[in-house]
Amino acid sequence: MFVDHLTLADFRSYSHVELELAAGVTTFVGANGQGKTNLVEAVEYLSTLSSHRVASDVPLVRAGAERAVVRTRVRAGADDDRALVLELEITPGRANKARLNRSPLRSPRELVGALRTVVFSPEDLAVVKGDPAERRRFIDSLVVGRWPRLAGVKADYERVLRQRNTLLKSLSGRSRAMAEAAGTLEVWDDSLVRLGAELVHARMQSLADLAPFCAQWYADIAPTNNVATARYQTAVLPAEREPDVPGRDQLAEAMAAELRRRRGDELQRGLTLVGPHRDDVVLSLGELPARGYASHGESWSYALSLRLGAAALLRSEDVQPVLILDDVFAELDATRRQRLAAGVGEAEQVLVTAAVAEDVPAELDGHRFRVGGGEVVAA
After folding, report:
1. Distance of alpha carbon 64 from alpha carbon 246, whole angstroms
2. How far is it, in rounded angstroms, from Cα 372 to Cα 36?
3. How far, rounded to the nearest angstrom, does the alpha carbon of residue 282 sit from its chain's CA centroid?
4. Among 57, 63, 229, 331, which one has the highest count of C-beta atoms within 10 angstroms of its own C-beta?
5. 372 CB contacts (<8 Å, ≥6 apart)?
């Protein structure tokens, strides 16, 4: 699949822009702060309902405007003229509205899956070097890319988690209230376990399926002989366990048992201490964890391998994601630039942003736009 038309209205820095795109490589070149990343961010947002840059919708709407509109036409393939028109109206503080082929949808969530993307940006270095939340965000993006309905499971889990935390906080230190609210807490426990087990199972399965692709890409990209491995870490299962992915029922039983064991701690702290929101993905190079031990170059290579591995996994399942490379070439040395350029050739569409055109390897020559002064002009 690929995007062949993009329309923005009051999105980020743009009052209005219309772009005709094509399969293959398209590069947006412009100085920092001119809006080139805003263009690919809009494509990402329609794909995932999230941005790799911000956690809130507020910055997505142009200053002074009440709402923003993002619309794309997505072609099924270079040899397939079937197309879908995806549209999202973003209104901070209110429910966003979505349309598919001009018809209103009940929820923006119904757009997820119509367009698949894999985004690599400078922020991805945090997946390797940063906190567990960054690695959870990465694996969840892959989970939703493979199984779009899991976006709903994740959203429902987060809703249950918020409500359970509110209840725990209200019970903290109140012994009489604890006894009265025990039944209510068990209801939230059941929902947390059911949704959490499904999310953890999908994460563990995706990590297991991703591992060989990631290891191969690291071997191709990095000028070292270290082997890249990844392991899912959760408190509900022993650290030393069978390599097979546990079933949902086994995960649910283990999570429920851990919730019972930690009940006193949770009531004391007023916080949910068990579940996928507490898990991590341990990334290693050879015998050592990448976080804290990998060099800057090795960390970049690992981050690249994770994203390229994710794209390769999706392609192996007959999904052609749009690959977005946002301002990454300036961060890479010449060797890694060339190896990245060689590695993205199989993607049906690649969207690249760069401050300096010469940073983009010649292998990625294709369509080019210059971005500046609020305008996007074909070069």
Report:
1. 51
2. 8
3. 17
4. 57
5. 30, 31, 34
Q: Helix, strand, coil: what percent of the chain each, to 5?
A: 45, 25, 30
DSSP 308-374: HHHHHHHHHTT--PEEEEES-GGGS-HHHHHHHHHHTTT-SEEEEEESSGGGS-GGG--EEEEEETT
Query: Is residue 314's pLDDT more than 80?
Result: yes
Minimal CA–CA distance to 338: which of 323, 360, 355, 354? 360
Three-class secondary structure assignment of 163-175: HHHHHHHHHCCCH
Amino acid identity at 14: Y
Query: Residue 305 and residue 218: Cα distance in Å, rounded?
Result: 5
pLDDT at 364 over 60: yes
> Coil, helix or strand for 101?
coil
Angle made by CA atoms 146, 152, 153, in degrees to the nearest 5? 85
* Interval 91-137: pLDDT, tens: 988 999 999 999 999 999 999 999 999 999 988 999 999 999 999 99
How sure is the predictor about 180, in pLDDT bands with cuts at 50, 70 and 90? Answer: low
Backbone angles phi, psi at 121, to 5 degrees: -140, 170
In angstroms, the CA 344 to CA 27 distance is: 14
**CA–CA separation, 305 vs 340, rounded Å?**
9
- Which one, of 272, 269, 274, lies nearest residue 173 by Cα? 269
Angle, helices 132-146 vs 150-171, to 10°: value is 140
Residue 344 has which token pair? 């993205």
Confidence of residue 175 (pLDDT cuts 50, 70, 90): low
Residue 288, φ and ψ in degrees, nearest 5: -110, 145
Q: What is the mean pLDDT of residues 253-259?
A: 95
